[in-house]
Amino acid sequence: MSHNKFSVAGQSPNSNSEISVALNNLSDVDTTGVQANQTLIWNGSSYVAGNKEGALGVVFLTSNNASSNYPQTLNASDNVYWYAPTPINTITGASLLDSDSIGSNWYDGVTLPAGDYIIQCSLHGDFTGSTGQCKFVLKAGSTAIGCIAESADPSNNSEYPNDASAYFSSGSSFDLTADILTLTAANSTTTDLQAKRGYLYVWKVA
Fold it and tell me: Residue 115: pLDDT band by 50, 70, 90 thresholds?
């Protein structure tokens, strides 16, 4: 019959000569894995489902000024921990880390999927006096990234920035942490300074 002679995007007309074409019937469109609030993005060869222009998701660990004493005495080679009763994680495939199994809403990093990231974090440690100082750096797996930062007793002035920051691109998933490099005069009696002031911010940009 004549109504079966033609097709559009592989779809033939019905007996009323009507053709129903879905978006994914188009040869240069692939909506596999599409999620709510995504849009079509041209990847150079086809249109695929992706996030809107701008951030492709964030991880934000902060307490919003909630109080909780730091869960352990600062120690060289340990990871920095952040307190986040209500952590924000909108990066698909990312998961929060608690390497020492501390629990109680304390996290020491995040496993991230391949991509490009802008990262920033802070540490506010507890020290016994004016010599107190803790230098730390962001790490992707075992690789240090970005600038060395520090936390210091208020009476200890130094040339280091207070916050660690980095731009990092990876073709595979990786664990993001902040590693303590050097430490002096750590106080075994911890306070809620880090809970109230510390944060980890990860912004996926590609």
Answer: very high
